[in-house]
Amino acid sequence: MALALHGITARFGGLVALDDVSMRVEPGRIVGVIGPNGAGKTTLFNVVCGFVTPSSGSLTLDGAPLRPRPHRLTAHGIARTLQGVGLFDGLTVLENVMAGASHTARAGFVPALLGLPRSDRDERRLRELAMRCLTEVGAAEHAAAAPATLPYAVRKRVALARALAARPRLLLLDEPAGGLGAEEVEELGQLIRSLPRQSGGECAVVLVEHHMDLVMAVCDEIVVLDFGRVVAAGTPDEVRDNPAVAEAYLGADVSTVDAEAPA
Ligand SMILES: Nc1ncnc2c1ncn2[C@@H]1O[C@H](COP(=O)(O)OP(=O)(O)O)[C@@H](O)[C@H]1O
Ligand SMILES: [Mg+2]
């Protein structure tokens, strides 16, 4: 599914968190959004999810105007993972993932949780879907576990499975590698690369991440934000070689740093 941002500006009081940001995410593509702390990455996700209303600009989804509402996201075909983990501790791993898919069941998962009458067929279908998603992320063996008992890296995989259970056509990942070790980051990279293919090549992924190696390894395109502005965009190679990127991360260009270095 193609997502486009057209000249999005978002303010918090006097602070301009996003400044005239335009970008496109084509179906089946993995687009990275990088930039230093405070650059506006999470705000960009919040705009796409409807948590933050831009002061100007617009969004389109497959060319049609998108006015996102957080509670309607899955109906738009959009799913996100949160910075951190955000699983329900009172539910098993499998139930957490089922909750991600609940909009697809007619009777609904919430009535089921409350012990209200529901269709057994819906419930069985949900369970099967949730197990498939856990298998996709390599966490099927933990289906019956309580999330709190699992290592952090596994919980992050479960959170990803929950997002996949919504069968999204646009998946937003906010710092999925946060808190992971080097080997876990590499496995996560392979998993993210496989996501568009698993969904028939149609699912687009937007990856917000600090972890530069991961972004460079998995993304087809990268957008670099600094102080809410797009300072560079292109393939990983183009972005790596762009002086504006080093500048954004260092806060000054290299020659300035050299000039100010004590002799
Ligand atoms: N809800 C909010 N209220 C006020 N300021 C915010 C809010 N969310 C983010 N900001 C500010 O907007 C800027 C961008 O933040 P954020 O999008 O979280 O950056 P990033 O995710 O790139 O680290 C920061 O200066 C941050 O302090
Ligand atoms: Mg952030």
UniProtKB/TrEMBL annotation:
GO molecular function: ATP binding; ATP hydrolysis activity
Classification via Pfam families: ABC_tran (PF00005), BCA_ABC_TP_C (PF12399)
GO annotations of cellular component type: plasma membrane
Domain spans labelled ABC transporter: 3-252
PROSITE patterns: ABC_TRANSPORTER_2
Residues annotated as signal peptide: none
Name the UniProt record assigns to this protein: ABC transporter ATP-binding protein
